# Entry
Amino acid sequence: MLVYTIRRLLVTIPLLIVSSFIVFVMEASTGNPLDAYVGHNPPYSAAFLHAEKIRLHLDQPMVERYVNWLIGILHGDWGPSVVDRHGVIREQLFQRLGVTVRLIFVAMVLAVVLAIIVGVISAVKQYSFLDYTFTFTGFLFLSLPVFWFAILLKEGGIWLNTNVFGQRVFDTIGEASIPPPHGFGSVLLDDFGHLVLPTIVLAMTSYAAWSRFQRGSMLEVLGSDYIRLARAKGLSRRRVMVRHALRTALIPLTTVTALDIASILGGAVITETIFQWHGMGEYLLSGIRNHDVYPVAGWLLVSAAFVILFNLLADLLYAVLDPRIRYE
Amino acid sequence: MTLVDIGNEPVEALDPNVVLSVRDLKVQFPTEDGMVHAVRGVSYDLHAGEVLGIVGESGSGKSVTSLTIMGLLPRSAQVSGSIRFGKTELVGASEKRLNEIRGRNIAMIFQDPMTSLNPVYSIGYQIAEAVRAHRGVSKAKALDRAVELLDIVGIPRARERVDSYPHEFSGGMRQRVVIAIAMANNPDVIIADEPTTALDVTVQAQVLEALGRAREATGAAMILITHDLGVVAGQADRVLVMYAGRPVEVAKVDDVYYRPRMPYTLGLLGSMPRLDASTRQERLTPIAGSPPSMLNLPSGCPFTPRCPMARDLCEHTEPDLQPTTSPEHLAACHFSAELEGSAANEVFEAGIVDDVPAGPGPDPKDVL
Amino acid sequence: MSERSDLLHDTSSSGQTVVLGGGPAGPGRGDREFEVAERSQWRMARRRFFRHRLAALSLFVFILLALVAFVTPYFWKWKYNSDPSFDFSVSPSWSHPFGTDDTGNDMFAFVLRGTQQSLKIALFIALFSTGVGAVYGAVSGFYKGWTDSLLMRFADVVLTLPIYVVAAVLGANVGGGTWWLIGLIVGGLLWAYVARVVRGTVLSLREKDYVEAARALGASDWRIISRHLLPNAMGVIIVNATVLMATGILTETALSFIGFGVQPPDTSLGLLVNQGQTAVFTRPWLFWIPGIFIIVIVLTVNFIGDGLRDAFDPQQTRVRS
# Structure
């Protein structure tokens, strides 16, 4: 198991290098950050522009820039930023990663639980009214654009705050109040108030595909021979359903959720933007807008590593759940 | 199972020797294309300790009959008739009652050992589970019993293997594990549904041997369902031949093999290659055609289109199971008496091939 | 009963006459003729599709929507790129069915144009990525070995690239935002999913006996791929195409929303939602209508995809043998 893990990690390193190279080149070659300084009134001095050019390594050839950047990362230097003059890309990225992961984690837990409940009920009561309702609702949420739904909930939250609750129950701006409250309980409540709406957005737009999948997986398991044998043993319906059917039907879900982590990250980026969280999303979008290569490349490295790590965890979990693949 | 009609038969005094009593069992399924009549009136008695072989082609209804006994049909199935086990009527029985009987009094072995066991639990767990479902013993004791059972069915080094997972076993060994599960609680009836079909011939023998040991250890009666006449010959005391959802011949095994009274049985025997053929020149006499669709059965005897002896009467009236030479030998044929002393090649033509009209074959370009 | 006569009197498919029986007891009695008609795979698939009522309805709605979006602007007074009217921020009325925004633009014209663009881009994405991905995956799965490893490594790299990042980076910088360019960018990333799936299908199909038979008869590699493998994978491919269409619409509208997709003066449904996001309760038509259009389009595509999935790979429903 350890060997397998290490082998997997080794394989991913070249993958990270290649994809970060691609994005680095893409970003660096398709935009000039100094364009923002053009046409400014009063105009920036030539000396200043020249200094900026050197600082941002715009004078170096592409490959050299990339290699230097990569080496720099190993030393903890993530490069210069157009906007941030103090070179704190690494701190920014990891702090914001924490913010985003908080959102993703809670949303995923909620989505998985929802998917399992809906999927299992749909399978067990196949073709019932409940099944059709769940299916239709699922399709509806599958078809919902994340940004639209996020705006709806945000504005709705504000409306509820003013017209129903009379006070601020839903916090729609940022991920925490500024200044943050004192005391563990207050902080928790504050976090919760800020988390609620974005989590709902992310969870509801993710659970639908998984619930369809879980329904299919459960149906397949329910029709299998070993379920028939379990019933032939005289086991109670409940035991068959939980111990045999559910236990086996849950296994493929680990792979599916892992595969979708990249799109969840994408959804989180958008959701954060609308709720004005200071997370990875905001950082990426401002980096792109400013043609800021190093933050964008750094962003890619962090997010790709996150996705890969997550996939690895899912694979390990799969091996724990399914004894068949433990002996590779 | 949806109960359609339980009938108004008078309750007969049961022969204490009869373990299971099936009367006029009918099962039908609604499908996209219409109602499929899978079982159209099966009746038999299973006596204590005997082996009843049920033989038939795919679609003859033999598996559905056993699934009905176990109460494992899909919910859409419509069942009528009676299946009596002791004092209990199984048709329409409550799930609770069925669960008490399943795995304890009546046990079942399925066809495909590769998919019969849950891949995520050890085989010891799965056997112990069967034990603990019906008896309040501790986990340790149940596991001991599991080891004991594995020993009986011939799994070597049982104490070590008991914690293994199904995927570590071969097909034959997995089937023996399934047999161990079936015999765990000393049932009165073991139903083996095509237990050897999915296995190699050499492994078949091992599995049949394990089945034999299971019967010895538990004293159970067995219903052995198969399409393999060779297996039935070696194991069964009595044979029930099914065609198109009904029994067409019921007799002691010797009678069926040496003195068949229904053309279908005769045809089946004639289509088997035999090592003891008296002359090397004897050719196989297969039965032409294929079994009828269970969706739209024509009236009359369903075997008529394939039967060399068919006459007008056969197309109009479906024959009942009637006693022939002895009251225990029943056959469903209007002309069973004519078959006395016949061999297969006297009735069936050798080397029949379904005719396909000659004409332009497919263009090779289309195939490639 | 109609099904039975369908079977017996199907003149458009080939029929086979089977003569049964005959033996020493004499012919005639056993000579019953049964006409066995062969239904082609496509006819059965089509029949199954239309049995899925929601899918059939969705197909109808989708086509209707597309027609309205592409044809109506020719007859409509206001265009998305014409001078705005002087009705500022009016709610939906007869002259402006979808209302107007604060500069007097007729939202009906804008929403229709946005629908056009989103549909065009999504279709491009679906066709491009499915086409490229299917062939790529089929070749990779067919040849296995080194070819497969190499091709799949490249696909893996493409798969690790986050769609939004790459599309945003390129979309922000490769200016203009012409519709097919956006389609190309997104499609240029999504094809890898299709390639993966098709490769998997081909890997299992190539082991089938008919492939070996064709090879034994001397069929060339390309012939096997195009005549045997791809047609049998068609079900998977078509279903994937609809999924990609839905993904394409959602991705494009999201990109346009954050400003890296379709740019003004042209419009997209995503862009419209962006412009209306502050007016959810004050001028709801600016926010709700574009959003509902997106939802309806994606929903219908998803249902059609579900119907196609049923058509090509029917699950056993009420009966288990």
